[in-house]
Amino acid sequence: MSQKPVPEGWQEVGFKDFFEILNAKKYQVLKSDYLTSGAIPILDQGQEFIVGYTNEEDKRLDPGNGVIVFGDHTRIIKYADFPFAVGADGTQILTSKETVIPRFAYYQLANKKISNLGYSRHFKLIKEMMFWKPPLCEQEKITSILYSVDQAIDTTRQVINQTRQVKRALMQELLTRGLPGQHTRFKPDGTPEDWNTLPLLNLCKRITDGTHQGVKTVDKGIPFIYVSCVRDGKINWESSSRITESDYLTISKGREPKPGVIVYTVKGSYGRVALVTDERPFSFQRDIAYILPDEEKIMPAYLALYLDSPMILTHADSVAVGQAQKAITLKELGKYPIKVPPMDEQQNIVMILTSLEGRLDIEIDKLKALETVKISLMQALLTGEKRVGLADQQDELLEVAV
After folding, report:
1. Do 161 and 123 fall within a single domain?
2. How far apart are the C-alpha atoms of 240 and 225, rounded to whole Å?
3. Sign (positive/negative) of CA torsion 369, 370, 375, 376?
4. Dihedrals φ, ψ of 399, to 5°?
5. Do 76 and 139 sit in the same domain of this protein?
6. Phi, psi (5° rounding) for residue 327?
7. Same structural domain for residues 240 and 213?
8. Which domain holds residue 97?
């Protein structure tokens, strides 16, 4: 039974009175048979919403009013209201009982805390859970509010993806052919005649990597970052660990962070870039390179953009070594070919691309805010803390959702 009292007018029911399990086996497609395009999308327990396609009509699952896709190993939960095929083993398909709206059932399940059992199966945990079921009219109102936030989230994600595509296309053009209309003479490789192509090492005062020593983390102290902390051109400080100031001073000699330094991941998820823009002290592991540009030869912001370009990622793929986790050696990193325009053109290219990044940051912040709103609304609505049947509370909730 739940520790909190069941809201007035609601029922607490077990799994079997809330969900029905659909037989997914006959709709499964072997991973080796996934297509990159096709008539029927494939959903599985992975992070990506759609993992492939198939043209096998007998694998098409009609979801009716909607079904829930649950990752038995991953605990990932998806909602589908369109025909699809089922991916590899470990994907469970649920629908709701007649007295439960399918999308409401999805929100209820998504709001549950499911213990992490590693790569063990988690479906057994769901079967033991209890679920709160409001009257249908209240389910409809709750679902409508949460779905409106979901639609805003989806729209914002589409804007982010489109902006990123525009940015990458613009990077490809500006970082290889320069500013539109500025050049009339080009080298055989398409580079403007007054540009130079130099190895990264020749453009930097120092290239090294992070500490090779083991570190002892503490609750409070100087940030210590990992490869996973470098994403989307920024350092995610929230996911960093902390080390003592004395350890920081010891392991950061020769690699002290300062504005203009570039950190570049070189192992595992290699090719992630972040430009240091403030005086905040931090240290990092050996899987991250420390690049100190020579500002008389190249702008740090331009170099950071170039290292984050599709051209350099393609080059990185060609020189990465290793089996389980590929890596870029410092020697190969120093050989990276960098196209260098005159300084004034570097400045103009940086201004154009950072303006686009600014718009992207606004949308990313908007997405984070919407996701926070959704979490708050789910907690309030799905536990009966806020009742949409009460006029004074419903207006407040609708205003937040919009």
Report:
1. no
2. 5
3. positive
4. -65, -40
5. no
6. -145, 155
7. yes
8. 1-133
**Helices 300-307 & 136-177 angle (0-180, nearest 10):** 110
Q: What is the pLDDT of residues 136-169, one digit of tens each?
A: 999 999 999 999 999 999 999 999 999 999 999 9
Does 77 lie in the same domain as 139? Answer: no
The answer to whether 190 touches 328, Cβ cutoff 8 Å, is no
Count other C-beta atoms under 10 Å from residue 374's C-beta: 20
Query: 125-134, pLDDT tens digit by residue?
Result: 999 999 999 9
Judge whether residue 12 has pLDDT over 60: yes
Judge whether residue 401 has pLDDT over 60: no
**pTM for the predicted model, two decimal places:** 0.80
Query: Contact at 8 Å (CB) between 398 and 370?
Result: no
pLDDT digits (tens, 9 = 90+) for 275-323: 999 999 999 999 999 999 999 999 999 999 999 999 999 999 999 999 8
| Number of domains present in the structure of the chain | 3
**CB 245 within 8 Å of CB 232:** no
Query: Domain check: are 252 and 290 in the same one?
Result: yes
pLDDT tens for residues 356-376? 999 999 999 999 999 999 999
Confidence band, pLDDT 50/70/90 cuts, at residue 390: low
